[in-house]
Design brief:
The strands form three sheets. This protein has a four-stranded mixed beta sheet. It has a four-stranded antiparallel beta sheet with strand order 2-3-7-6, with no helix packed on it. It is built from twelve helices and ten strands. The radius of gyration is 22 Å and the shape is globular. The two termini are 30 Å apart. It has 398 residues and is of the alpha+beta class. The structure holds flavin-adenine dinucleotide.
């Protein structure tokens, strides 16, 4: 199999590079490169620039305002964007809800919600997990009881990423307790401004607030906000999850981080010589580089097969596991490179415009936070243990 880019793909790669050079604001790429906190406005600014070029929803079909790009073109775009330190596209509306609406929603729902996702009118968050329903998602208890032309929703969601910014939440709710637990779940779209919704932040290991608990008390949701059929939500939920895991390998992001790590190791002096020359450190970096190169090849093979119509199943799980392990290894090596400078956590140093005295080298400021934050990678999007079970069943037939 030839995994080199075709002439057309090389021309496309060049087009993406030129676009990024011209349109990616230096302020934003500098924030991403130096591990500063991105605000909601930063993320929206980048979305608007991409939308203007018609590249925001790059996996949507053209009829709904997407690009109709091939999987390889999307890979090129994502890799180049990461290498240029562009902010990641926030996935909830664009990459998670939209494909579900296009496949299972009504024409009216598509016409209403999709343009609002594109132009940034609605910020979405994902209401799947609950206390007691994470890996075993079908155990969810948040209940929606139909009363006339409304559902009354009661219950609690948790780990709702960036829910503090959200205008809307797509939720899995229980609409029936009969039969198998998967058969009583529905997919509801809920306006976060509806009375009875309370959002409470959860502080993570890195000291930041990016996830929330969301409580629903007698929340009235119009029945037209149901996607597809009542009690059929499990099918839609699984379809969405297949999108959630796509590109979780994050090859471009790891390539960019690895470059930065090598640079940091060159300029860090340990025992009188650059850390990059320390045999133990160099061995770990070399292993990482080989693993990343292998994962990139596997990713290209999977994308090549997907382009030919094969739906990746166990392969997505493999990429999810390796991709997240590699990113965690990079953040671990950064932490070790920083040594004792990783210990003082100066939260303000992660804000744009911080002009205090850096503790140690400038690149060390976000290192501990990134290390702790990235513990999440092997949990969310389906924990790595559960991904291993998927591979075991699909490939080993155990
Ligand atoms: C930072 C972060 C952001 C998140 N964002 C969102 C979000 O926006 N929206 C949302 O809905 N959810 C979100 N999640 C939730 C995420 O999807 C769940 O955390 C995940 O599915 C795991 O569920 P759990 O936390 O309930 O752990 P559990 O399911 O209780 O698992 C605990 C441990 O047991 C292991 N385990 C469980 N079942 C098995 C099994 N069958 N075999 C082997 N091991 C098993 C797990 O792998 C894990 O190590 C987020 C989570 C995190 C950490």
């Amino acid at each position: 199999m030839d995994l080199d880019f075709t002439e057309e793909e090389k021309a496309f790669q060049q087009e993406v590079r030129e676009f990024l050079k011209e349109k990616l604001p230096a302020r934003l790429s500098e924030k991403v490169r130096t591990g500063k906190r991105l605000t909601k406005e930063d993320m929206e600014e980048w979305h608007a620039i991409l939308n203007e070029r018609g590249w925001l929803a790059n996996h949507w079909p053209v009829e709904w305002g997407g690009t109709g790009w091939s999987v390889m073109e999307r890979f090129i775009f994502e890799t180049e964007s990461a290498m240029a330190h562009a902010p990641r596209i926030v996935p909830f509306g664009i990459s998670m809800l939209a494909p579900v609406l296009m496949k299972y929603g009504s024409e009216e729902q598509c016409r209403h919600y999709l343009p609002r996702i594109l132009d940034g009118t609605d910020w979405w968050c994902q209401g799947y997990s609950e206390p007691g329903a994470g890996s075993d998602l079908a155990s969810l208890k948040t209940e929606a009881v139909r009363e006339g032309d409304h559902y009354i929703v009661n219950g609690q969601k948790t780990w709702t990423t960036l829910g503090q910014y959200a205008d809307w939440i797509f939720c899995l709710v229980r609409t029936s307790k009969e039969g198998k637990k998967q058969e009583g779940i529905s997919f509801l779209l809920i306006d976060m401004k509806t009375p009875g919704i309370e959002v409470r932040p959860i502080k993570l290991l890195d000291g930041d607030f990016e996830v929330n608990e969301v409580f629903f008390t007698d929340v009235k949701v119009p029945v037209e906000n149901l996607v597809g059929e009542e009690n059929k939500g499990w099918t839609y939920a699984k379809y969405l999850l297949s999108y959630e895991r796509t590109n979780i390998a994050g090859v471009g992001m790891s390539m960019a981080l690895l470059d930065q790590l090598k640079e940091a190791a060159q300029t860090t002096i340990r025992n009188g010589k650059p850390l990059a020359d320390d045999p133990f450190f160099a061995q770990r970096v070399a292993k990482l580089e080989i693993d990343l190169e292998n994962m990139k090849t596997t990713n290209l093979r999977v994308l090549d097969a997907a382009g030919a119509g094969h739906t990746p199943m166990a392969e997505s799980s493999m990429l999810k596991i390796r991709g997240t392990e590699i990113r965690q290894e990079i953040t671990d090596l950064f932490r070790r490179a920083a040594g004792r400078y990783a210990q003082p956590f100066v939260s303000e140093a992660l804000e744009e415009g911080f002009n205090g005295e850096p503790v140690g080298p400038e690149w060390a400021a976000p290192v501990a936070g990134a290390y702790f934050n990235n513990r999440k990678l092997s949990i969310f999007g389906g924990s790595n243990e559960v991904q291993r079970e998927i591979i075991t069943k699909a490939k080993l037939e155990l």
